[in-house]
Amino acid sequence: MSERGRRPELARLEDELHALGPVVVAFSGGADSAFLAWVATSTLGVDRAHCVTAVSSSLASSERADCAALAREWGLRWTEVETDELSHDEYVANDGDRCFWCKTSLMDALEPIASGESAAVVLGVNVDDLGDHRPGQRAAAERGARFPLVDAGFTKDDVRAASRALGLRTWDKPAAACLASRVPYGTQVTIGVLGQVERAEAGLRALGFPELRVRHYDKVARIELPLDALARAVDHRVAIVDAVKAAGYTWVTLDLEGLRSGNLNKLL
Questions:
Q1: FRET partner for 207 with CA separation of 20 to 30 A, picked from 40, 189, 223, 244?
Q2: CA distance 80 to 109
Q3: What's the sign of the alpha-carbon dihedral 66, 152, 24, 167?
Q4: Extended strands (E) in 152-227
Q5: How many Cβ atoms from other residues are within 10 Å of residue 95's Cβ?
């Protein structure tokens, strides 16, 4: 690897990956998993780094397409697998442990691949992720998944800084949690709800709002945008209302507190 972008954490990450041996990277296309996929492939080679994207109704089609694009651009060994989290009644019920069942389905899909390659399953969890309510991490860890970014001491800012130094276009990619994270706990997660959220968010991105969340409250959409985008949203309110109503919502609201990743966890 070039010394360009090399940081102490990066050297530790490379050491962690060498120690793990062959790896199967859970590759969602976000900044963290993309960085891990690139470093794993660069460090171990394509024969020992297999990047796998879990495809389900909770993955936006735009994210799936970007995974494919990144795999082509970076020369990753890449596979898609289908997961069936919606088959778990506990996931559909959407209580506080929804993410546990999502990661359970992920591990169900990744473990056979990893077993066939005598590889470890690795996830792009960073140090900052450890402080939030994330039962999915517990599910993955209980099944033997490893978090090399955590072991190497990477924070979210470290991931973005190292990605930028390495020339990875994902360095400033907005966070894009699964679509189910837009649904308040206690509201059932269904294919219809996930599709409605995806259509609304796609409509807003087409209007020039790349970083956002559309929180689903039955017929009401609560839009979260960065604070510096609120004024522009008001200026484009007619187009925004049209786009969100076209997705199936009756009422459209703009959250004046702005975008807060994971804010529904505060309601637990």
A1: 189
A2: 10
A3: positive
A4: 213-217, 220-224
A5: 13
